[in-house]
Amino acid sequence: MRKKTLLLLMLCGFALASTAQQPPLSRCSVNNINATIIGDGSCFAKLATVNSDNCPTWEVPAGSGKETVFQHTLWFGGLDADDSLHLSAFRFGQVGQDYWSGPLTTTNATIDMMTLLKYYHVWNLTHEEIDFFIAHHDEAGYETPDDILTWPAHGEGDYAANLAPFVDVDGNGHYDPEAGDYPDIKGDQCLYFIFNDSYKNHTESGGSKIGLEIHAMIYAYSDSEDEALNNTVFVNYQFFNRSANDYHDVYLGLWSDFDIGYGWDDYIGCDVLRGSYFAYNGTPIDGYGEPESYGENPPVQVLTILAGPYMDADGRDNPKYNGDCDALFNETHPADKYAYNGFNFGNGIADDERLGMTGFLYHNNSSAINGDPSTAPEYYNFMRGIWKNGNHMQYGGNGYEGPNVVGPECNFMFPGDSDPCNFGTNGIAPNEEYNTGDKFWTEDECQNIPNDRRGVGLVGPFSFNAGSTQVIDYAMITVWNNESLSAIERKGDFIDHIRDLFNHGFSK
Ligand SMILES: [Ca+2]
Ligand SMILES: [Ca+2]
Ligand SMILES: [Ca+2]
Ligand SMILES: [Ca+2]
Predict the structure, then answer these.
(1) How far, in Å, from the CA of 18 to the mean position of ligand 2?
(2) What would the 3-class secondary structure string for 302-334 be?
(3) Exposed site from 115, 367, 378, 386, fewest CB < 10 Å?
(4) Cα dihedral sign for 9, 13, 15, 16?
(5) Which residues contact 368 (CB under 8 A, 6 or more apart)?
């Protein structure tokens, strides 16, 4: 883990230099996952400004000292009316910074330092605390938790009047905890924070500011009877366009540097139909006995996109995917294809459809054509499945060159057998031996050398007009072997179960 240790030191120096204090962070730890969340847009991150041994990104099982996620962040970019690119992204923060704490003014999408410091915090509440507040808040001797008292329900002055959601018990439209109003949280534990891309110019990607304000709710359920739910953390991001720009061809990327225990022997892949990507150990035994390695039976780490941003309206309740591939690729109604893994299709309501995962790209820890992006156009190209040399991803092999790269152009790498309608190649069957039905593109099949894998789940295109909002919901799930099945074999059922819970509003 030599390279990653070095990275931590660089990150540490950067964070200290830029803020001169510990970043706003909190812990999501209500179930089998112990995750550190940084509220300034670093997201699920390992920052060495705090003791990294006590600050795991994604420790699972909680207390084990072993992790499956090294870093997990958000990329977001699109074109304005003049087709100029605006983009914010974050990987490790060793280059610079594109995100900061706090909301933006609705007048000109800015934030001053005093307001930033006010929001330099992650609010962290449990359902139990809220229930206790509801039952006892008007009793003598009850002390309201700070995170209920200071819940950021309202912005002042030029900031939006309504920010964090709350239950308005006295019905006056204002958050008054002393009158019994309380935060409207999801899950058994909920972390809430607000961040933006426009406090300063972007030094990580170099991209132009978007005017993007993000409200993040990260939540989890504790349920020892439900193994999948007990190993899952959910993310809900609300995106607010505080700028005067109408953006089109907007894409977002959910970028992850997964490390299954020991980080240098991993593989990665995706499940197109389930809108998910995942990392797994590239060898049967994880690592070589390092403290962070799982050894036998390493888990699989999954990210599943439950419901992405709203699609552009076409006046149609685009039909649900029912297994009919031909119906999916409808020339008159091109948006119908997104039913494959999207949300709100065929529910009787027109134009509430939300995109699912529309692409998955893996890249290496390197500066090669398929290595880490560093400029805004490189990030934006990656989010559209385009490599640094300007070529679109191709089916097979490493996706860009070599004998196993057979084409055609594709949007999902290492889909295995998860794409029976060829959604990832726009309805066209992959070339050569992948077309025979018994050979599928995975890292195992390519006999790649296991290494440090990074990947980005892509969602787009969508529109993001001035003053409008967008949203994404996704979940990160750690999957374990049981006595009869491997984690790889079980992951499909885990994902289906979590997607089903979400689709039914968590009413079991
Ligand atoms: Ca009120
Ligand atoms: Ca590993
Ligand atoms: Ca619909
Ligand atoms: Ca529609």
Answers:
(1) 33
(2) EEEEEECCECCCCCCCCCCCCCCHHHHCCCCCH
(3) 367
(4) positive
(5) none
> How far is the centre of ligand 3, averaged over its atoms, from the C-alpha of 255 (Å)?
28
In angstroms, rounded to a whole number, what is the distance separating the alpha carbons of residues 331 and 122? 46
Cβ contact 88:75 at 8 Å: yes
Who's near 206: CB < 8 A, 6+ residues apart?
Answer: 375, 376
In this structure, what DSSP letter does residue 422 have? -
Q: Which residues contact 404 (CB under 8 A, 6 or more apart)?
A: 396, 397, 398, 446
Distance CA 297, CA 312 (A): 44
For residue 175, how far is its CA from the centre of ligand 1 (angstroms)? 4
The residue written with tokens 């900031």 in the block is 159
Q: Name the closest ligand to CA 173.
A: 1
CB 428 within 8 Å of CB 408? yes
What are 265's two structure tokens?
């022997």
The burial of 171, by beta-carbon neighbours within 10 Å (0-12 exposed, 13-18 middle, 19 or more buried), is given as exposed
Nearest-ligand number for the alpha carbon of 181:
1
User: Residue 153: nearest ligand to its CA?
Assistant: 1
**Structural Rg of the chain based on CA atoms:** 22
Q: Which two tokens stand for residue 285?
A: 């035994």
Question: Tens of pLDDT along 69-127?
Answer: 999 999 999 999 999 999 999 888 778 999 999 999 999 999 999 999 999 999 999 99
Say if CB 6 and CB 92 are below 8 A apart.
Answer: no
Do 356 and 341 touch, CB atoms closer than 8 A?
yes
The predicted-structure confidence for 36-60, as pLDDT tens digits, reads as follows 999 888 888 876 555 555 678 999 9
Q: Is 280:262 a contact under the CB 8 Å cutoff? A: no
- Phi/psi at 282 (5° precision): -80, -5
Output the CA 479–ligand 2 centroid distance in Å.
Answer: 14
Any idea which ligand is nearest the CA of 351? 4
Cα-to-centroid distance, 39 and ligand 1 (Å): 26
Residue 3: helix, strand or coil by DSSP? helix
Which band of pLDDT confidence, cut at 50, 70 and 90, is reported for residue 13?
very low
Encode pLDDT of 231-264 as tens digits. 999 999 999 999 999 999 999 999 999 999 999 9
CA 340 – ligand 3 centroid, Å: 13
Q: Identify which of 85, 104, 92 has the alpha carbon closest to the alpha carbon of residue 199.
A: 104
CA 411 to ligand 2 center in whole angstroms: 26
Percent of the chain past pLDDT 70, that is, above it, reads: 94
Ligand having the closest approach to the CA of 315: 4
